[in-house]
Amino acid sequence: MRRLLPAVFALALLPAEARADIDEFTTAARNLAADADTGPLTNGLHYFASNERDLDLVADAVQDTGEVVVAVAADPGYILAAWADARALVLIDLDPAIVALHRIYAAFFAAAPGPAEFSRLWTPAGEAEALALVKAAGGEALVETFVAARPAVARRFAELERHMASKGRAWLLSDPRLYARVAGLVRANRVIALRGDFTRAGTVRAVAETLRAADLRVGLCTCRTSSSTFVHARVPAKRAGAPLAGGQVLHAAGPPGRFRVHPAAGRRLPGVGAEPEGPLGLPDPRI
Question: Which of 122, 131, 148, 208 could form a disulfide with 154 if both were Cys (CB 3.0 to 4.6 A apart)?
Fold first, then answer.
């Protein structure tokens, strides 16, 4: 995808007991400053749809991990937050166009009562309603983003539905219960989208500090490097592969988007692993 970020990581940390008011955290996070300089886009393109095709492989491992989900890229955060039953969702991306796309997602989740209605908004059949929602959310500039993104997003969701159905896996846009989890976060103002770079300390560090100030934990974190996809979870050993910093490496992928079982360890997350605990304060930056 973009420079240093074309494959997916996921960390699932053990859920903690109820602590600070989650809404205090989301209010503070929403007001964080974005990274002003996140470098050039890879290939000069906006990646409005992600390429992780086998997210179903981690669904059981991240099920109901809860807490705050921190995610990069266009759509995996929503899918994983639904399985995880997140308390809040923080979306961070290098590309301002992807941050704008999250505003469109928010408008659609808020308006659509279920997954069928949400999916329809990305199709020609739902165009009139979709354009009205997008224009109300952000004017003509956001409409331009929607028009550019819609073909890729519609294709992505259709492909995911075929894949998930073939695996017998309920997911965000097939299960009203899972959809309601994410739509509920949106309607409660518990989804935050920020421009940021996981290879730098700015926005990512600010999110970490805000989490610490609220005494909250990351339940699931996705980030990307240029060559491989790793999925970590701090879960019981019987649910995963090789132990890592009190948790497990669940799956790795290569080439980008293709998951396979791989008990990897010892690789380092660019930027996030540059300090003893990394900007998000994860217990061990190595993967």
Answer: 122
